[in-house]
Amino acid sequence: MRSNNKRVQKQREGISKGIRLAFILSLAIILRLSIQAACATPDTIWSIGVVDHSAKGFALFDSYQHIVDPKTYTYIKEVPDNFQYVIGKNNPSDWPAYQPGPDDAWGGGKKRSLGIEFQLEIKLSGICTLNIHLVGSHSQWPSKVLYQVTINDRTVEVYLPPGGSYSVLPMDESHEAPSHISVRFNANLLKVGNNNIWLTTLEGSWIVYDAISLEDNPQTSTNMEGLDAFAEQKSSLSLVSQPKSNGKPTVRPTRSELKTMDKDGYFSHLARHAEQDLIQNFWIDTPFGGEITPSRDGYPIVGKPNARGFIWEGAMMVFALDSYYQATGDRSVIRMIQLEDRRFERVYKPQDLDAAGGYYNHACDDSGWNAMLYLTFYRYLGDPWMLQHAINLVNDAYNRWMDDKFGGGMWYRDERDIKSVYQAAIILDSLDIWEITHDESFYRRAMECYEWVESKLLRKDGVFFCDYNSKGPVGKSRPNDIHEASSVTFLGGTMAMGVINARLYKITKNDLYLHRALKIVKAVDKVFDNGGVYLDDRDAWSNGTFMGEWVADCLTLPGVSQSDKDILLRTAISIYKNDRTKNGYYGGSWSGPAEGNGSAWYRAGSKPRQIMTSADSVNVIMAAAMLESFEKNTNVITPSATVK
């Protein structure tokens, strides 16, 4: 109950009328200020739970893995549509810990609402505030969570800040990213008697509740007619601050580029152009709504409805679109990925997707890329069908190619003549599957392969040999044979190992993995520096595969300097300016040119018109836009070197 404030009832007699009036006015002012100060702390009308950065005590908290199991999806049974909590009747243990969004198949693949009903015996005044505290939410991979609050007949929507993870159990405190939603409104919107609040996830994925409360501050005057909402993050996923440029000559956009640049920044501007190039050249309209052009050896399969192209080739475009979405939040990407997911269900047979060593998963690299693709579909759409295919393919790859020859690790292909750093893709897939399913067999096998790569392929300079045979690392006698279109190393595989170490550091908090990841970051900048841009050394079809992960996992680590980032930014500019054809295709020579005898990759047979060549290079541009976005820098990022 709200306490009543004392008022002055009597004034001293015997004071002159003028003095008495002045005294009364002065006392009234002092008393008014005292009342306002006393009422500065709002009164709590009701609350559900307490703010303790945990969903413990709420319904289903200990049942997350059970309710999201594709075999049952019991959340739908446990929490009916339009669930309603009645203040004074229900207990916090009745309130669901989790609220899925439309992206979550386990919640029915639709927007979900939770209701709160409460009674008021008196009319409230002033400003009311609805406080919604979250333990965490989806990490915005693939989509932001759009949250709607309806109070009686008024509605407001707000996007939530990024959560801590997309795949681990939300109650895992190491991945917490608590946030607070505050909805302010005129108390006149509430009425004596019955009132209702509805909380709805309109877009995106799940959220996890910490506590909800309604407060009233009757002494706050307002002319508000609707609801005013904001959401803020309460714990950091912030990036480590970096030193500024050292004053060397900088790369800047041209004057004409600045005129056409949108407000998001220079690299976002380049990314939007590159995305349109990919769509123009490698996306086709179909009666089903559209799809990535099916291809064989990178070239479109023309005139064949429902053609089954090589899976990994189109996957390279999906990876670039994924990086683009993370940089810009352009939701058209989600629609394209959804259409591509449906094409897979329509066109490919289960054995096409699952069989390692088969036509579509010929070697461990194809298998790694393809499982990455299935997991990307799962992250965006919550499609359990795709998650299961990723699990099946990775399991089959381990069973088919993993043994103790050469000390362990995974064979590159059925011929069993080499083992390779290309298995890093399978390792990353395994870590993702382990985080989603908590099946320890994936973590165990991933670590066995990881340790083999670290022990057998890591060079003294900090990068990785690509292959290993009965004589040891291939190219050990010629370690400096690192050239465009011919190399004993593999930039993409080296970056993948950096990403793996960064993720292991986040999982285990073991500084050993941080040290290894930072060593790889420094080594990449030094060994693969080709006149200020990255050298596309061995594989123009996949060297850029992990650029997005490189930004998200490695370039955000403590200890990474601005110079470590500059080479990526310079490479993105160089690709757009020097490695793009007039028709919007991208070559493998990141310093240029895109085609002709001046390009070693063009001479070697990796042509810009091949989907994986273009998409792989475009992913570098998308990664630079991600870096720009992650650092929340709306100005032009200016690397400290010149690109001609």
Strand content: 15-25%
Portion of residues within helices: 25-40%
Principal-axis shape equals elongated
In round numbers, the mean pLDDT is: 84
Regarding quaternary structure, how should these chains be classified?
Answer: single chain
- How far apart, in Å, are the first and last alpha carbons? 72 Å
| Rg (CA only) | 29 Å
The number of distinct helices, counting runs of at least 4 residues, comes to: 18
Structural class: alpha+beta
Could you name the ranges where pLDDT drops below 50 across 5 or more consecutive residues?
1-40, 166-175, 235-253, 255-263, 633-644
DSSP strand tally? 22
Instruction: Describe the main β-sheet briefly.
Output: 6 strands, antiparallel
Short description:
This protein is of the alpha+beta class and 644 residues long.
Please give a handful of descriptors for the protein shown.
644 residues, alpha+beta, six-stranded antiparallel sheet, 18 helices
Describe the structure.
- The protein has 644 residues and is of the alpha+beta class.
- The chain has 18 helices and 22 strands.
- The strands form seven sheets. Strands 1, 3, 5, 8, 10 and 11 form a six-stranded antiparallel beta sheet that branches.
- A hairpin with a 2-residue loop joins strand 21 and strand 22.
- Helix 11 packs antiparallel against helix 12, helix 13 packs antiparallel against helix 14 and helix 15 runs parallel beside helix 18.
- It starts with 16 loop residues before the first helix and ends in a 14-residue tail after the last helix.
- The N terminus and C terminus are likely disordered.
